[in-house]
Amino acid sequence: MGFINVKKKEVQIKIVYYGPGRGGKTTNLEYINTKYRERIKTEMVSIKTHGDRTLFFDFLPVDIGKIHGFDIKIQLYTVPGQVKYNATRKLVLKGVDGIVFVADMQRERRESNLKALEQMRENLLSHNKDMLKIPLVMQYNKYDLKGEGVELLTVEEMEQDLNQELKAPALEASALTGHNVVATLKKIISGTMIAFRKELQ
Amino acid sequence: MYGVSQEQLEKIDTLLTDELLSIGVHCVIVIDTAGNTIAQLDKGKCACDVASFAALAAGNFAAVDAMAKLVGEEEFSLHFHRGESESIHFSKINDDLLLITIFGNDVSLGFLRLKTAEVIENINEIWGDTSC
């Protein structure tokens, strides 16, 4: 849950990139880390397996400037996508303020997207959070594979599978090339800030 | 989203300075279990990146807590990592907050544990019924 520090005049916000394994969550953070290197004061923290897969989480703190005199500090996390690490995913979701669900557009990954979303709903419930109420952005990743001989789901199919009930803002993206990575980040930050404002009112 | 008053934060800072920095602790951090930093004080001897440290500490604490439950324990009350020149001690303040101290070889672990127990009691009084 976001924390307002009135003494230091800062707000800390936790945003988690969630989704199936090998979907591009870490690649999103790596792109942001490279793109905004001058604004990020520290190194990205990644806890990985020997096979270079996320073991615990990635962490990247980003300062986005001031709102009403308060420094806004965004803390970006990813969860490990591999099925066996659900206990860890649950831990990382503790205190989450906003979620980017990174779905994989490859047709063969359709089932993995659905399972990951359903598990996210359950994991959020274990923290007494309702997936339908938390700020969320859908990112349909790997759009760059279009025309590369890989069969992709259409945006309409992705929407029908994942976003019918949620009706969250959705963007097709390529974490690898950076297409819509920043747009996704901006969307979730603004969605989270609007939710905070409502909460404070 | 939650917050505490400036007065509460100042009281916590004073407490940490008087009770922990005064006995030679290099750095003391209070975080919540989501990884947010509530308070951080040091004697200029701690060059670590506090935001990353807080995220890792919260994750570490949560993982050890989950391991405790797997072996049928309610919790492991002592989390301590000894290094060659710097050591880290973790304590649970309440269900929402953790106290982390980083200290050198000149501070005795036993004395530090006594001090942190007092500090935890006082932080709980200051924190009151604030809920994260």
From TrEMBL, chain A:
<dbReference type="InterPro" id="IPR027417">
    <property type="entry name" value="P-loop_NTPase"/>
</dbReference>
<dbReference type="GO" id="GO:0003924">
    <property type="term" value="F:GTPase activity"/>
</dbReference>
<dbReference type="InterPro" id="IPR001806">
    <property type="entry name" value="Small_GTPase"/>
</dbReference>
<dbReference type="GO" id="GO:0005525">
    <property type="term" value="F:GTP binding"/>
</dbReference>
<dbReference type="Pfam" id="PF00071">
    <property type="entry name" value="Ras"/>
</dbReference>
<dbReference type="InterPro" id="IPR052705">
    <property type="entry name" value="Gliding_Motility_GTPase"/>
</dbReference>
<dbReference type="InterPro" id="IPR005225">
    <property type="entry name" value="Small_GTP-bd"/>
</dbReference>
<protein>
    <submittedName>
        <fullName>GTPase domain-containing protein</fullName>
    </submittedName>
</protein>
